[in-house]
Amino acid sequence: xxxxxxxxxxxxxxxxxxxxxxxxxxxxxxxxxxxxxxxxxxxxxxxxxxxxxxxxxxxxxxxxxxxxxxxxxxxxxxxxxxxxxxxxxxxxxxxxxxxxxxxxxxxxxxxxxxxxxxxxxxxxxxxxxxxxxxxxxxxxxxxxxxxxxxxxxxxxxxxxxxxxxxxxxxxxxxxxxxxxxxxxxxxxxxxxxxxxxxxxxxxxxxxxxxxxxxxxxxxxxxxxxxxxxxx
Length: 231
Known about the structure:
Layout (H helix, E strand, L loop, with lengths): L15 H12 L9 H9 L9 H12 L5 E5 L5 H7 L4 E6 L2 H10 L4 E4 L9 H4 L12 H4 L3 E6 L8 H5 L7 H10 E9 L5 H10 L5 E6 L3 E6 L1
Parallel strand pairs: 1-2, 1-4, 2-3, 4-5
Antiparallel strand pairs: 5-7, 6-7
């Protein structure tokens, strides 16, 4: 029996992850209901220093993770939020990919269970136009254990994609061309990909090209624009 509404009632649709959580609750009415995402987020943020993403950006990702029991989570980029992602995915598998060796070592020392792998992108942001329609040049060399896995939730928040990166750090920004492309290859059927900084031209173009505008299910404004894609 359909437990949510009769044929004569109006069903109001909301963000996809909220419906997933509600479906799961009704399918298993005897189990404890998971905490509301905002309460969980605020509790973990209070325990984690200097997380740059705001609650509006974190909310849909947390909801997607909570909707998948024993979630397999892949995050492009290590940062102050890495501990947050490991804790929010307690009971699941969390993997980080990082191109900066200093950040990789620093974050690895803070984590209890998650894996951190060093990767090399070998690209420059300025090459984005020539690479846009060249998927054979966007393959990223990954450890076998990562390349052979499919992930329920993928977060793309690295590598550096800001055009000002070179003048700020003296190093060229690799751009997120490869990470967005690889996310489209590594996401599991029914999984989710979230791309941060989609207010930037390159992130928006590559997300449209390789994740597909037809899969876009949420846009969240916070520190920057986060877009979520459902596969």
